[in-house]
Each structure stands twice: as structure tokens, then as C-alpha cells.
Design the sequence.
């Protein structure tokens, strides 16, 4: 796919999520449709992963193994210079990802990750966006469950609205439903790292409360709806809702996409997100319990001694994760509703996009989202006004990623639900 030795190098292939991405690439592309390699700290552990993949396909026994260290820039330079794309699952990214991003930027190497660490994403934007534009490196954060369904779902919805009504929606509201699922130790480690940073730094706390935290300077002050904190009733969907922990990641990502796409949805476009809990008394009770539980967890993780005790004695360790039955038996749905008006439809219109995944959102679906994002970047299948920069899934890859995901366990559907005249 490129003039470099590899199309994709999978960094962190020995971790829990990294193995899932490796298995997905093996099953989907094998060794003939994609030139790829496994990378990490330990050649011995990488060889174990390669042996597991070879049991699925003999040809994968020839996969190259590359070693490096997250804090050794020279080793990361060697890896970045040999590949078109680095696809990384090594978090927390604020701790382990900065040198890798810097190496990719300098070598003009495309990059995609699973980061949901808004404060670190803001830092990479400030440190590397302009240089990445010069070198042609596409640095695409948030290529997993956070934030592809929200970001590309909004892009699909707004594309339909523009085609159907000649104008985009003024606002989009996302409602998330999750059945089953579980957190891995790596995800928990990222959450602990984020709360530790927030407890120590007022600027991090401010960023987490700002839906426009990732916007360029010119739109940082535009009106925005603050993240939902308590229980609310969504009348359009006839459901109770609770705060969604990923909203503080997804909302800034969607807002940055609008800015980097040159504001096709307007400078005052608003995106918000919540967790759908159902109607009636049961839905209200679930919303209340979830809101209270998230509040208690956030409070606990904000207190140093409590956070350290939970991390040491209660929470799963990095490398641990849900079993195959849990991954296969879980699912998610993100239903996005956008509304707007036009001269031809002065009483307004509404459009809905639905993103579904038939696997655990954080692992069974995320490994497909990240894997296909890497392949899009390697093959040049992107629809973007930018040749480089610190980008988002919608602004850095766009609808080609939706097309790549067709036939996997992740689907995108869109329809008009109201058409006033």
C-alpha cells in the first residue's frame, strides 16, 4: 500500500487490546493483503503472539517483530521510519504515548490510537499539529469506541441532512445503550491516570468540563452545552438518561471535527451525549443509580489515597480484560438525533443515525474500528481537507472508514424521521 517496508506496525501487540487487534487483522487481511508487523518491548512475548496468529494462518509465521521502548526515542524513530502507519494500543497515552507521536510526526508517519485522554490530546495538538501538517503525518486520536461511533455517526447524519435538506443540523444529541461489556485493566489504568491528573491540575479539570476543549483557538469560546451531570428526560426518544462517562471525550472530538472540516455544520453547532436508561419508573431508577454510581466513582478516584488503594487492591491490572464469552455476548447502540430548519422546511426537520456493534464496545468492536482506521490510513482511503495534522476520525479519515466497516460487526444507518414544510 505504500513505498515503506510496512503498511502498518501494531505497537503494543502483546497487550490485551493489542492481541485483539492483531487477531482481527490476521483474520481480515492475513499476510498477503497487508504488509504488517508486530511491535512492543519484548521480542519473546511478541513471538508468542505471532505463534498464536500462525495457528490461525500459517503465512502469519513470517510476520516481522520490532522491539522498542515507549521512552526510548531512538527505538521509536527506527519503527516510525519503516512504516506508513503506526497503530497503537499502549496506554495510558499521557504516560506512554508522547514520544511515539513525536517520532511519527517527524517521519511523516500516519498514526492512530484509542486515546480518550482529553488533556493529552490537547497537548499533542498544541505541540505537534503545525509540524504534522508540514511533514504530512496524520495523527488520529480516538479510533475506538471513543470516539468513532459519535464522530463518524455525526458525519453520516450531517451528510444525509445536507443531501436531503440542503443544510446541516444545528445540533445533534447522542443516546448510548450498552448491553454487557467490561473494562480491561488498561482502560482502568487510563481512567486512574486521568483522575490523578485532574486532581493535581486545575487546567485538566477545566478541559474535562469543556465540550470545546480540543477546538482551534478561534472557536474555543463558542456557545456549548456542558456535559450532563444528573438525570434527565429525553422527550424525543421517550427515555430517561444518565451522564455517560465517555461524553467528556466524545463531545470535544465531534466539536473539533466540525472545526477541522472548516465548519460545515456552523460555528455554533452543538453536540451532546448521554446514556439511555429506558422509560417509566424502571428507567428513572436506573438513571438515578448510574448517575450516583458515576459520581461516587469520580469522587473516589479524585482522592489520592482512595485512588491508590482501589488501583492496588480492587481494580483489574493492565493486561487483564473480559473473557471471550463476555466480548462476544455484549453489544452497543449509539442513536444520534439531529434537528435543523431551512427555507424549504421552516418548521424544522429531524434526522437519525444509528451506530450498532454486535460485540463488546471496548474490545470486540474497538479492535475492528482501530484496525480498519489503520488500513484506511495505510491505503490512502481518506476524505479529508488535511494532508497532515492532529486530527479526528471524521476529519482525518471520514466516510471511507464507514465503508471499510461494512461487513464487520459495526454498522451505520441513517434516516429522516421528521420533514416539516
Sequence:
Amino acid at each position: 500500500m505504500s513505498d515503506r517496508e510496512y503498511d502498518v506496525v501494531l505497537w503494543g501487540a502483546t497487550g490485551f487490546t493489542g492481541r485483539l487487534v492483531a487477531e482481527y487483522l490476521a483474520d481480515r487481511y492475513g499476510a498477503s493483503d497487508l504488509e504488517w508487523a508486530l511491535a512492543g518491548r519484548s521480542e519473546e512475548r511478541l513471538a508468542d503472539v505471532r505463534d498464536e496468529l500462525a495457528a490461525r494462518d500459517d503465512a502469519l509465521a513470517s510476520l516481522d517483530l520490532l522491539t522498542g521502548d515507549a521512552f526510548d526515542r531512538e527505538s521509536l524513530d527506527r519503527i516510525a521510519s519503516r512504516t506508513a502507519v503506526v497503530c497503537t494500543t499502549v496506554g495510558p497515552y499521557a504516560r506512554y504515548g508522547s514520544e511515539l507521536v513525536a517520532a511519527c510526526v517527524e517521519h511523516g508517519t500516519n498514526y492512530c490510537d484509542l486515546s480518550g485522554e482529553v488533556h493529552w490530546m490537547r497537548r499533542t495538538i498544541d505541540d505537534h499539529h503545525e509540524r504534522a501538517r508540514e511533514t504530512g503525518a496524520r495523527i488520529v486520536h480516538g479510533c475506538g469506541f471513543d470516539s468513532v461511533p459519535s464522530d463518524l455517526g455525526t458525519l453520516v447524519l450531517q451528510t444525509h441532512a445536507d443531501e436531503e435538506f440542503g443544510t446541516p443540523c444545528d445540533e445533534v444529541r447522542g443516546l448510548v445503550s450498552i448491553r454487557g461489556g467490561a473494562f480491561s485493566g488498561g482502560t482502568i489504568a487510563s481512567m486512574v491516570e486521568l483522575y490523578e491528573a485532574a486532581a493535581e491540575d486545575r487546567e485538566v479539570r477545566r478541559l474535562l468540563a469543556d465540550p470545546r476543549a480540543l477546538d482551534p483557538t478561534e472557536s474555543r469560546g463558542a456557545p456549548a452545552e456542558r456535559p450532563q451531570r444528573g438525570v434527565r428526560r429525553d422527550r424525543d426518544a421517550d427515555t430517561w438518561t444518565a451522564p455517560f462517562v465517555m461524553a467528556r471525550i466524545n463531545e470535544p472530538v465531534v466539536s473539533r471535527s466540525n472545526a477541522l472540516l472548516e465548519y460545515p455544520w456552523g460555528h455554533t453547532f452543538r453536540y451532546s451525549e448521554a446514556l439511555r436508561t429506558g422509560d417509566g419508573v424502571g428507567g428513572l431508577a436506573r438513571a438515578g443509580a448510574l448517575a450516583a454510581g458515576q459520581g461516587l466513582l469520580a469522587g473516589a478516584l479524585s482522592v489520592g489515597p482512595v485512588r491508590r488503594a482501589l488501583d492496588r487492591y480492587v481494580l483489574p491490572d493492565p493486561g487483564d480484560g473480559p473473557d471471550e464469552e463476555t466480548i462476544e455476548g455484549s453489544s452497543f447502540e449509539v442513536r444520534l438525533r439531529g434537528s435543523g430548519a431551512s427555507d424549504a422546511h421552516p418548521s424544522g426537520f429531524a434526522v437519525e443515525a444509528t451506530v450498532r456493534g454486535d460485540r463488546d464496545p471496548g474490545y470486540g468492536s474497538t479492535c475492528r474500528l482501530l484496525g480498519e482506521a489503520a488500513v484506511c490510513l495505510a491505503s490512502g482511503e481518506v476524505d479529508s481537507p488535511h494532508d497532515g495534522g492532529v486530527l479526528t476520525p471524521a476529519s482525518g479519515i471520514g466516510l471511507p472508514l464507514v465503508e471499510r466497516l461494512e461487513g464487520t460487526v459495526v454498522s451505520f444507518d441513517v434516516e429522516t424521521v421528521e420533514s416539516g414544510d
About this structure: The first strand starts at residue 6 and ends at 11. The first helix runs from residue 16 to 29.
